[in-house]
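new request in #modeling-help
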Amino acid sequence: MTDANEITEMRTIAQRLRGRTLQMVHRARASHIGGCLSIADLMACLYWKILRIDPNNPEWPDRDRFILSKGHAAAMLYSTLADRGFFPIADLETYCQKGSLLTGHANWNIPGIELSTGSLGHGLPVGCGLALAAKRDGRPWKSFVLVSDGELDEGSNWEAILFAPHHKLDNLVLIVDYNKIQSFGRVDEVLNLDSLADKFRAFNWNVIELDGHDHAAILQALRTLPDVQERPTVLLAHTVKGKGVSFMEDRLMWHYKSPSDEQLQRALAEVEN
Amino acid sequence: MRTAFLKALCEQATIDDRLFLVCGDLGYSVLEPFAEQFPLRYLNAGVAEQNMTGIAAGLALAGKTVFTYSIANFPVMRCLEQIRTDVCYHNLNVKIVAVGGGLAYGSQGYTHHGVEDLAVMSALPNMVIAAPADPIEARAITSLLASYPGPAYLRLGKAGEPVLHAENTKVELGKSIEVTDGSDLTIISIGGMLGTVLQAGEELRKRGIHPRILSMPFLIPLDVTAILTAAKQTSAILTVEEHGPGGLGTAVAEVLAVHGGATTFRPLRLAKAPIKVSGSQQELRSAQALSVEGIVEAAEMLCLSPKPAAIR
């Protein structure tokens, strides 16, 4: 069960990850800060409380598998893995620099990263394959995939969404970063996903809707998995793009823009509060 | 050829419990023995090739050796990015099997003509590419790929292909098989054209031309040594393939150009233009000179051409 200390810890970690990621994106003049900030709370809960992983043994055969299918939020994944001890925090300074493995999209050559992503719609099918392997081999580990909402435009995801319940993959957890903004507009203007919960229910998924910034709700949902035996679970995590930095919140431009020196200082002041 | 493949796959699955077969809802009257013998290592992913290939990548990440299986272009083109990014980039143990390569589904129309697959697959990193000529090669290559760690593409014919090699023919990764020795020219074929090439060889010998005939089942790794030896020892090279530009002919031309193996050379292959009409495999091949007559004529013309002077 979650307690007040745990929630404080999650908040502290998430804000630290936000700060590090802001600095990386600023230094590299990189994009995608909005979609990094929206998943900070989910990443803190997953990597510190939920995933069965060992930073000293990234290849542990019975580890839980996590795939960041929205690979453009790699800076947040790198911050998380470094903070969790998979590689030195100092390496984060090489993000998007010449010769660095810390590429703009998630790179499997880095300890702790299961799959290179960046082209959308790849993570969930691979996650299904991993979950199926665990089922067929009778292994205890789970497969977690984090997708963006815009990514659900990809047909490959719906092939996998059809597949997972048919094969009773109750060891598969899909998390949707439902921040309502995709790369060239609002989701309801580009390709409306409403009602996403009903769509997943119609495909026989166990559906949990929650606030993707509410640590208590996230921990409670992920700790009681699987809610329903023989069904995969989807967490529709309602989030805010750019969460934590007031002038970035819910703004499309922060899918592309990199903060100026002055904007970085203002943003850091907000997340360090 | 698909029966030889499946038999070899079942044999390998008996000795290697990591072996897994995933099909895209195709394989009726072919795959059943595997499904019955190894139910926990068999999956029909449905008519969904992108998901099928992603699943194969996931299974391979978890330690499986995965064969994906479907018809002609479906396991190759529909899911090309999954092959490139999920399978090849991660150097995963996934073997893509296309049954009915070339014009095996000739009368079904262009959707079912697998005639660009070798070109497309050969652009990808880490990929081994094989197209066996007969059931003997198909069986040996299936076994070989089952224990080869990494991505591979296996282009099979369909059913009823004649056995062309002796039972004990040695098949090695990246090596061609010399079927007939000769010194006038070398005919190199990949995949199911070998039978026609052998018949053309008999006709050529009647006309006093003695071809060396190589079956080259591997486009990657390519048997560069055999190509350069042929360039040196025989007076011309003719490649024969059931494929458009970008396959064996292109690869051999590049070897000759890069290594300075100046010789008279001609690729006998399909035109790039889609075939709009119906016809049997034999009929559609023959319409583009992939026939005994076409090969004989091309070989005779090559032998009449002057050999180019070595590049100085």
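bot summary: Strands of chain A lie at 65-68, 143-148, 172-178, 181-182, 185-186, 206-211, 233-238.
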